[in-house]
TrEMBL record, chain A:
Pfam families on file: Fer4_22
InterPro entries: 4Fe4S_Fe-S-bd (IPR017896), 4Fe4S_Fe_S_CS (IPR017900), Helical_ferredxn (IPR009051)
A GO molecular-function annotation: iron-sulfur cluster binding
4Fe-4S ferredoxin-type domain boundaries: 260-290, 344-373
Gene3D superfamilies documented for this protein: Alpha-helical ferredoxin
Full protein name: Unannotated protein
Automatic annotation (TrEMBL), chain B:
Domain FAD-binding FR-type, first and last residues per copy: 16-112
GO molecular function: 2 iron, 2 sulfur cluster binding; flavin adenine dinucleotide binding; oxidoreductase activity
Any one of the GO BP annotations: pyrimidine nucleotide biosynthetic process
Pfam family, one: NAD_binding_1
Species whose genome carries this gene: freshwater metagenome
Listed name of the protein: Unannotated protein
Gene3D superfamilies: Nucleotide-binding domain of ferredoxin-NADP reductase (FNR) module, Translation factors
Transmembrane spans: none
């Protein structure tokens, strides 16, 4: 995405304008993916027209709770994301890595074909955008970039969206983000519904984003539209507050390994791994070879190497010499929380958590990562003020 | 749309792709440990530093991390493998002419440059001698008189590399052997490597330690007693590893991804983490 572009911003009709955008991106050769309501949740899937996107949908989120509601507001982006993130497309839950065939005296390797079209992601929230950046740092690490990830990620067109109605579990403002995407998008949409009317304000964030908006031949924005963009973002930010000092967590949690609090959480944690499965940045995976038996008992000629999502809550994740290093739920919850909020920083130079709240919402035990982190921070502070300094 | 063009210029290297190597020699070291010599079928991997490991793949079975125990100037790599589970048993069971897939080399190396001109003690427990063999060879070639090697094994038949042990001694290195349980023919020391270090009470400036984790913990503490600063002690840690490149997330120890930031790490960077149960 280039930095030098004309400040292009247009006003789109919430129905016709959105539809035109979807169709234009598809015509430009993108595989357009956006939010659809299916099975009672919001998922990201292929969209053919603007009408595939939700209308009048809001979401209620709480620890262990996600409920979809319909109203007649006609709003297009008042929902908040479901369990699924864009990770599913750039880093699928299960993917073929290689196919290896026995040849005469050796073996030969073939790789899966790259995707035919680049993705256009529609309605990317700020947390989702930062999650992609976090994942990029892991998967495109310069010393060993993952070529399959790189191919899927190449040229992704990003239509970001400002969150006008953050959920109760959203805490992006504590993790370096906020309801309004600031960078890294081609187009940013802000939905405004005030006495100037219901409209989508689309602003370009890149040269190709500007080109797309120009080709939509829509009305240029006026000062009321731009003022509405600011007030939507400000109101949303204010409604959230800041729950934790995210940037300080690597330091605050650095000496928490021996805390008794891990056992307190472990009393409730089921070690089910849901939190890791819905996390938009979790990258732990299993590489395994799948070999079909031959019907005539002859030697196997082909094996397929697959990569699939794994979880630090699985016992075999830390298997070593016939046992697990992280044998208890407390060990595994500690690994999960400290990796996300603390050790990731040193490993990859970013935080591992973007504050989307999914792990809290989709935890069947309703364990709130923010509350648990806050409890640990408070406990550390108590110990330090009591003079129990560790070196 | 310039973005479509990007798709063609993406990294061509697939880090998960094994390179075929053929077994040219198989030597039974102990009842369950075998050293394989492998030569590339076509182009080989990049050169290996002492302490680095490879991902070793057996067709239709699986892939495991194995340290390189020696490389030859002619391109061969030697791997010393204990048969413990499905994949290691398949690797040990290969015979001359069989093909395995190798990836790597991965991980950090023993800091030999920093050891130059200093008194070095190398402590190896069991199979821990395999990842240390190249480092000992290099040090013996450089300055054998400033090298002590302490090798422990469960019993005498489990001692690896008898001819190397003799060669190192002949070159002037102090080689101390010890076993946990002595058979009739054993006339040497009995006890742990830690006990040997404590009894010898030699002075050293630097230490490389590899073996079972508990042995490394007590061994590292024992070499501190020999005057070595914790920051001059290096250990090689073992964890579950699927990829070797920091992408599978399994080998974490606090902020270290041991496949990438290890397996050879500085003792003072891991001592506290290893004390935490289940970390
Ligand atoms: C960086 C690194 C370097 C390594 N270098 C070497 C090397 O040079 N040589 C070498 O032989 N190994 C080495 N290993 C260990 C080797 O990778 C494992 O032994 C191997 O992954 C086991 O895989 P498997 O499929 O054979 O067994 P798996 O099926 O994965 O597991 C082994 C099974 O065997 C049993 N088992 C395994 N170990 C033990 C044990 N210690 N006690 C009791 N039961 C056990 C258990 O039932 C377990 O389920 C290294 C590991 C790492 C991380
Ligand atoms: S924290 Fe919740 S979602 Fe995560 S493993 Fe425990 S019970 Fe499952």
């Amino acid at each position: 995405m280039t930095g030098s572009h004309a400040p292009v911003a247009v006003r789109l009709d919430p129905r016709v304008g959105l539809d035109a955008l979807v169709r234009l991106l598809a015509a430009d050769g993108y595989r357009v993916l956006g939010p659809v309501v299916r099975n009672g949740v919001v998922e990201y899937d292929d969209v053919m027209s603007g009408d595939d996107l939700p209308t009048g949908v809001t979401v209620e989120q709480a620890p262990g709770r996600w409920r979809l509601h319909h109203d007649d507001s006609g709003l297009r982006f008042a929902w908040t994301p479901g369990a699924e993130s864009w990770k599913r497309y750039v880093f699928p839950a299960r993917q073929e890595v290689l196919r290896i065939r026995r040849t005469d005296g050796s073996f030969a390797v073939t790789r899966p074909a790259p995707p035919e079209r680049p993705f256009a992601f529609l309605a990317v929230r700020d947390c989702e955008l930062r999650a992609l950046a976090v994942l990029d740092r892991v998967e495109l690490d310069p010393s060993h970039p993952d070529p399959r990830y790189a191919q899927r990620r190449a040229g992704t067109f990003i239509v970001a969206v400002t969150c006008g109605t953050p959920a109760a579990t959203c805490w992006c403002t504590s993790m370096g983000g906020g309801p309004q995407p600031g960078t890294g998008y081609d187009v940013r949409i802000t939905e405004a519904a005030d006495h100037h009317g219901h409209r989508l304000v689309a602003e370009a964030g890149s040269e190709r984003g500007a080109q797309v908006l120009i080709r939509l031949a829509a009305t240029a924005v006026d000062e009321h539209d731009l003022a509405a963009v600011r007030s939507v973002a400000e109101a949303a930010t204010q409604s959230m507050g800041v729950r934790l000092d995210g940037a300080a967590l690597p330091t605050l949690l650095a000496d928490a390994d021996d805390s008794p609090h891990w056992q307190v959480v472990a009393e409730r944690c089921l070690s089910c791994g849901n939190c890791t499965m819905v996390c938009p940045t979790c990258f732990c995976s299993t590489f395994s070879d799948h070999t079909a038996l031959t019907s005539d008992g002859s030697a196997v000629v082909e094996t397929v190497r697959e990569q699939s999502w794994a979880s630090c809550f699985q016992l075999d994740h830390s298997a070593l010499g016939g046992r697990a290093v992280r044998a208890t739920t407390a060990d595994r919850y500690r690994q999960w929380l400290t990796h996300k909020l603390a050790t990731w920083q040193e490993q990859f130079g970013t935080t591992g958590c973007v504050g989307c709240g999914r792990c809290t919402v989709w935890c069947p035990a309703g364990i709130d990562i923010v509350q648990e982190a806050a409890a640990l921070v408070a406990e550390r502070a108590r110990l330090n003020s009591a003079g129990d300094f560790r070196t | 749309m310039d973005s479509l063009a990007d798709l063609g210029t993406m990294p061509a290297v697939e880090p998960m792709e094994p390179t075929p190597y053929r077994v040219t020699h198989s030597r039974r070291e102990t009842v369950d440990v075998t050293t394989l010599t492998l030569v590339p079928v076509a182009a080989g991997l990049a050169s290996v530093l002492p302490g680095q490991y490879l991902m070793v793949w057996a067709f239709g079975v699986g892939e495991i991390p194995i340290s390189v125990s020696r490389t030859l100037p002619t391109g061969e790599v030697l791997l010393t493998v204990r048969a413990v589970g499905a994949t290691s048993t398949a690797v040990v069971g290969t015979t001359v002419g069989d093909v395995l897939g190798l990836r790597g080399p991965f991980g950090t190396a023993w800091p030999l440059a920093a050891a130059a001109g200093r008194d070095l003690v190398v402590v190896a427990g069991g199979l821990g001698l395999a990842p240390l063999r190249m480092a000992i060879d290099a040090q013996v070639a450089q300055d054998p008189t400033r090298l002590s090697v302490v090798v422990g094994a469960r019993e005498q038949p489990q001692l690896l590399y008898a001819d190397d042990l003799q060669r190192w001694t002949a070159a002037g290195a102090r080689v101390h052997l010890t076993v946990d349980a002595a058979g009739r023919s054993w006339h040497g020391a009995v006890g742990t490597t830690t006990a040997v270090l404590e009894r010898l009470a030699e002075r050293h400036e630097m230490a490389f330690v590899c073996g079972p984790e508990l042995m490394m913990t007590s061994g590292a503490r024992a070499v501190v007693g020999c005057g070595v600063q914790p920051s001059d002690i290096w250990v090689s840690l073992e964890r579950n590893m699927h990829c070797g490149i920091g992408h599978c997330g399994r080998c974490q120890l606090g902020s270290q991804l041991l496949c990438r930031d290890g397996a050879v790490v500085r003792w003072d960077h891991v001592e506290r983490l290893l004390e935490v149960r289940g970390r």
